[in-house]
Design brief:
alpha/beta, Rossmann fold, 7 strands, about 40% helix, hydrolase, AB_hydrolase_fold, Alpha/beta hydrolase, hydrolase activity
């Protein structure tokens, strides 16, 4: 049986004792944290990993039965915590990893001290009385494009998700990350992500949390951040002066400052 540390390409480093576990978003891997990680290394133990199908994970361990829902990814987070015997973890999750981390903390809260959600969304689809940001027909069109031409989809979507059109190198960074992800797994992960509905799970969280919300974000609009704050016990919200869905890449200094202020 393959080890969890190899399966998820787990990396551990840093000079402190307080553990910070960073979980990347869809289409990314642990390299997405490289713009902020050095700020925490001197005073924390840093744990990075790749979800199965991303980065240098063991893709042979991927099964649709497990990863066809976010709970499968949440179990991987818990597996990493167990394998390293972690306690009182500060979990930092970007995008879909916010809900993955929340599910993990609801299931086994004893592992976690605080959760930091960057651009979270409990539901991406609009619903009656709820603005998630997407209509189902829009998502279906995106998935048709994704299925027919994954590289083309990546080249079109990554810059839009990143925002900051005046800095095209940021969009290129995300495009390259998308293109390095296994297309078949990425397509399934995208559907799992965008059709998930975790609104009912928010009230179950017993661990303190922070929502870091960008002022302009096409994936998680301000209304979603407000919904997180209003429906998650013990949640605080900070709106960053940042555009796009990846402030840890586009505005690392502001992201670092907000995280440090919270922890």
């Amino acid at each position: 049986m393959i080890s969890v540390l190899k399966r998820n390409n787990v990396q551990v480093f840093g000079d402190g004792t307080q553990v910070m576990l960073f979980a990347h978003g869809f289409g990314c891997d642990q390299q997405s944290w490289k713009f902020i990680i050095d700020a925490f290394t001197p005073d924390h133990k840093i744990v990075l990993f790749d979800y199965v199908g991303s980065g240098k994970s063991d893709i042979s361990q991927y099964t649709s039965a497990k990863y066809g829902k976010l709970d499968g990814y949440a179990q991987d987070v818990l597996d990493v915590c167990a394998a390293l015997d972690l306690k009182e973890v500060i979990f930092v999750g970007h995008s879909v990893s916010a809900m993955i981390g929340l599910l993990a903390a609801v299931k086994q809260p004893e592992y976690f001290k605080k959760l930091i959600f960057i651009g979270p969304s409990p539901r991406y689809l609009n619903d009656e009385g709820y603005k998630g940001g997407f209509e189902r027909a829009d998502l279906e069109s995106l998935f048709e494009f994704m299925d027919s031409n994954y590289l083309g989809w990546s080249s079109a979507m990554a810059p839009a998700i990143m925002g900051n059109v005046d800095r095209p190198e940021l969009g290129e960074f995300l495009t390259n990350s998308f293109c390095a992800t296994d297309p078949a797994i990425a397509r399934e992960f995208a559907r799992v992500t965008f059709f998930s509905d975790n609104r009912a799970d928010l009230s179950k969280l017993t661990v303190q949390s922070l929502t870091l919300q960008c002022a302009e974000d096409i994936i998680a609009p301000l209304e979603v951040g407000a919904y997180m704050r209003n429906n998650t016990p013990g949640n605080e919200m900070v709106v960053l002066k940042a555009t796009g869905h990846c402030p840890h890449i586009s505005e690392p200094a502001a992201t670092i400052e907000a995280i440090k202020a919270y922890i």
